[in-house]
Specification:
Chain lengths: ~280, ~400
């Protein structure tokens, strides 16, 4: 053969495609997606007084638009951060366990590009989980209550689930989309932590434990009030207008972005000189 | 997408002095090389500009720019030697650049040294075996050579470029399997795994004639056929046996026709037929100019095709055994070994002769002198019962050497 189509060595598309295929291959990802799909179904059949205790308000579901908001309140404080921390730790740790990290580094692809591809896929994973949660909640909520306009709120705007009057479907959809996107940004630094610890420990269990321990430690550090604005855990409810913390949404988003960038820089710096 | 027809270079004059100006071109800054000159004549329709650079003594790279001049230069091939011309003023260079050089290589984990002061060169076409007891540092050495680990002292050069600081393009000419069995994504098929590796390799390989070839499905099929895995190509790797994974590892390593092949225990877990297959492939690669480094415990096996064996012990290179100089000894079973040794010692084509009753061992300058040696013995009146090559027993030699260390 004398003629060849030339591609840049280790093209980013090929690497990203491979990373994404690997992500889909993880059992923890499949399990996470199944959980994300079934949680709204579980909630829809839960008694209203039980749900009221969980969300801390008098809650009677009347519309399909309320189910995604309720689901977000249930999964964001603990379940999704845990799923994201474990799976993102596995993105590096799983590859080490398979023994496929070394063959990847033997190809003419820079370590920086590999680390950033893993980070990018890790950041996409929470969005996948949230998308499945949103679609599942809309599906089950719509089937049960319908999607018409209603008196009440989605839980994701001023007024919470009680709302401030009649809510049109388009407004409800906008509120949900906005809240779910912010929730994706909230989970990005946790995904980043999973990658950083994965590179540091080269082991899924150790990295997952370190990520979860970091989150718990940050929650404990909240006793130092002067430290609060800098703690990631104080901004995890940024998707909700009815927040326990009193930071502006812009403040939270900037801090979350800074955490994610710091994780990217740390991942690249650690990976560049990591012995395998 | 760039398309290039390397064979269509008609006049190429890229040798000459590097620019001394401190003002570097964008291309020079990007590739940290000096641009020697423009490729004058290029008959491909696809390019507007091509430039050549010389990163090391006997290596020429071509950088191409697509029709749109705003697109960056892209490394698009190696220039075959036959297409370069040497200016009259430049002295012809005959030195062969080693494909792999380990220079004073050392590695410590914490304060514990696992490898110290290792030096060796592997030339193109050589098969270089690493032998040593468990814990001698073979795997560490392989990981250092491939750039997976970083040395605490010294450096490794692949085709003249530092594997640890030269960036990913240094690995473009390297194929390696660093684990036994070779590791692949278990949820992908053998073919899908190789296709993923082809994409990571940039989608092109460079043939022995310097011509680029596509790493497409045909090439994947070709290496699968070579390693006798074609019928397994659509099975998930999780279903492969140990030996099949080893062979798939080799298929991945040779996919882009590497100039340097590095293998950690390539025959581990293989049946005799599989071992034979690997030997045939490695011998064929070596004869086409690929430098091969492999670690092994199967010394008798590897001595049939390796050129040199590096014996490691306690993290040091104990000895480098040149097998090519040890294969030309002949043994003669004779009635008087001492007399035969004395007779052969006087011959100009015998470098050394000694008695090892009932044999006389003679180191000849080449196998072609064996009939002459028999003639000499016959003229001296020595009765010859048997004449055969006295094959170097690498295993015995290795055992003695390691016990002595």
């Amino acid at each position: 053969m004398t003629q060849a189509n030339i591609k840049l060595p280790g093209s980013g598309y090929g690497l990203l495609q491979l990373e994404f295929r690997k992500l889909i291959g993880f059992r923890s990802v499949r399990l996470g997606l199944i959980v994300a799909f079934f949680i709204p179904i579980l909630l829809i059949f839960a008694p209203d007084d039980g749900l009221s205790q969980v969300v801390g308000a008098n809650l009677i579901l009347v519309s399909g638009w309320q189910v995604p908001g309720l689901t977000l309140f249930i999964v964001m404080p603990f379940l999704l951060p845990l799923l994201v921390a474990v799976t993102c730790a596995e993105i590096v740790g799983g590859e080490v366990a398979w023994g496929t990290l070394a063959p990847l580094l033997l190809r003419p692809v820079s370590r920086t590009r590999i680390a950033l591809s893993k980070l990018l896929v890790a950041v996409l994973y929470p969005l996948m989980l949230l998308l499945v949660t949103l679609l599942s909640s809309l599906l089950i909520g719509g089937l049960r209550f319908g999607f018409g306009s209603f008196f009440g709120g989605t839980g994701l705007s001023e007024g919470g689930f009680n709302g401030i009057g009649n809510l049109e479907p388009l407004t409800a959809l906008f509120e949900l989309t906005r809240a779910y996107l912010i929730a994706g940004l909230v989970l990005a630094p946790i995904a980043g932590l999973g990658i950083v610890f994965g590179i540091l420990y080269m082991n899924t269990a150790a990295a997952a434990l370190a990520s979860v321990a970091s989150i718990i430690l940050m929650r404990l550090l909240a006793v130092f009030t002067w430290l609060k604005p800098l703690l990631l855990t104080e901004h995890l409810d940024a998707y909700s207008p009815v927040r326990t913390s009193h930071f502006k949404i812009e403040q939270s988003l900037i801090l979350l972005l800074m955490y994610t960038i710091a994780c990217a820089v740390a991942s690249v710096a650690l990976f560049e000189r990591k012995d395998l | 997408m760039l398309k290039v027809l390397i064979a269509s270079f008609t006049t190429v004059n890229v040798l000459g002095q590097c620019k001394t100006s401190t003002k570097q071109t964008r291309l020079e800054r990007k590739y940290k090389q000096c641009v020697l000159g423009k490729v004058k004549s290029f008959s491909g329709d696809f390019l507007t500009t091509a430039q050549a650079a010389r990163p090391s003594k006997n290596k020429f790279q071509i950088f191409c720019q697509a029709k749109n001049p705003r697109e960056p230069f892209t490394e698009c091939g190696m220039l075959p030697d036959s297409m370069t011309s040497t200016p009259a003023s430049a002295p012809p260079s005959t030195a062969i650049v080693p494909a792999v050089s380990a220079i004073n290589l050392g590695k410590k984990y914490g304060k514990i040294p696992v490898l110290e002061g290792v030096n060796f060169n592997v030339l193109p076409g050589q098969v270089y075996a690493l032998a040593g007891p468990n814990g001698a540092g073979k795997t560490t050495l392989i990981r250092l050579i491939t750039g997976l680990s970083f040395p605490t002292s010294g450096k490794v050069l692949l085709n003249g470029e530092d594997v640890h600081t030269g960036g990913p393009r240094v690995r473009r000419f390297m194929g390696a399997v660093v684990e036994a069995p070779a590791a692949f994504y278990p949820h992908l098929t053998g073919r899908e795994n190789l296709e993923a590796h082809a994409r990571l390799a940039g989608g092109v390989g460079i043939g022995n004639d310097g011509v680029l070839f596509k790493l497409d499905s045909a090439r994947v099929r070709e290496v699968l056929t070579l390693t006798e895995l074609l019928r397994m190509q659509d099975r998930k790797v999780g279903e492969y046996s140990l030996g099949q994974r080893q062979r798939l590892g080799l298929a991945g390593a040779i996919l882009a026709n590497p100039k340097v092949l590095i293998l950690d225990e390539p025959t581990s877990g293989l049946d005799p037929l599989g071992i034979g297959l690997i030997h045939r492939i490695l011998s064929s690669m070596a004869s086409s100019g690929t430098a091969t480094i492999l670690s092994t415990h199967h010394l008798r096996e590897v001595s049939s095709y390796a050129h040199k064996v590096c014996i490691l012990g306690g993290g040091r290179l104990l000895e480098e055994v040149d097998l090519s100089t040890r294969q030309s000894a002949y043994r003669f079973r004779v009635d008087d070994p001492a007399k035969a040794a004395a007779a052969l010692s006087t011959q100009p084509f015998v470098t050394r002769a000694y008695a090892r009753p009932p044999y006389t061992i003679a180191h000849l300058e080449g196998e072609m002198h064996a009939p002459a040696a028999i003639r000499v013995l016959a003229l001296e009146g020595v009765r010859i019962f048997e004449a055969a090559p006295d094959l170097f027993d690498l295993y015995e030699y290795y055992r003695e050497r390691v016990e002595r260390s």
